[in-house]
């Protein structure tokens, strides 16, 4: 058995004091963000987090009770990037979690805090079975949950420093298939719209788009990516981009968006400029939110089984609690192509 990694070993590795390491790992003030990040990275590299989680799981948090009432599951969904119960995307994932927990007879505690202090104020690990994280969650918050010994499963997010099970839709393969469909109906000048630094899912979707271009021998150019800024309200950026492209005679035949909300903003912008979809160019989204079918023309997109993501996260958490020593898993759930009126082949025939 390998020797236990101590805070002193981490301190010696970094050339700092044990006091600094202790503060950084406990989330307390008095350590700069840069130093805290160095400590967390070193602790991860040395295997400190893995052993802490294993030790903590021998205690009360994260244990299936022998009898009596079952504990609740903490659902952490920080109120950032519109990650709320009212969201047409995140809200449906939360519904899936709630349905599965109710089927299994467990309670649910939803926390929307995005600061360590707020989380510590409400977190009582002794009454919790584990944690399911929904969407992007900061490393500091995940570290606090990990320190408490709670098993965790993350949905649509992963942290390179904190060991956990994760559940994603198969973003790469789905976007690859969507892009390949467009290429198959004649499109050769395609662009991807989205901020690929926004989330791991967006980055994987961009790579799926790139992969399809490379497979079909379409050279990747810098302008294949419409890099958007901010987290919402992209129509103005699309107006500027499309106006410039039209003036230069460089409008693409198809635009593939990182999600449906971006595609709907693009649809609004193109309408303002008198660019018809799919007449002037085809347009596709991703996620299949309810508005994707309501807009006109309805969006070609990828259906993400949002309820299934939530249910699968609950199942994986219960498996983790029952078998804490098993390797962590990254679970990919397949999405489905949804062909609607916003795309057509290059001969003008609509594909719906």
Automatic annotation (TrEMBL):
CDD domains the record matches: HTH_LacI
InterPro entries: HTH_LacI (IPR000843), LacI/GalR-like_sensor (IPR046335), Lambda_DNA-bd_dom_sf (IPR010982), Peripla_BP_I (IPR028082)
PROSITE patterns: HTH_LACI_2 (PS50932)
UniProt keyword annotations, A-Z: DNA-binding, Repressor, Transcription, Transcription regulation
HTH lacI-type domain mapped to chain residues: 5-59
Domain of life: Bacteria
Keyword Repressor: yes
Record bears the keyword DNA-binding: yes
PANTHER family: HTH-TYPE TRANSCRIPTIONAL REPRESSOR PURR-RELATED, LACI-RELATED TRANSCRIPTIONAL REPRESSOR
Name under which the protein is recorded: HTH-type transcriptional repressor purR, Transcriptional regulator, LacI family
Organism: Thermobacillus xylanilyticus
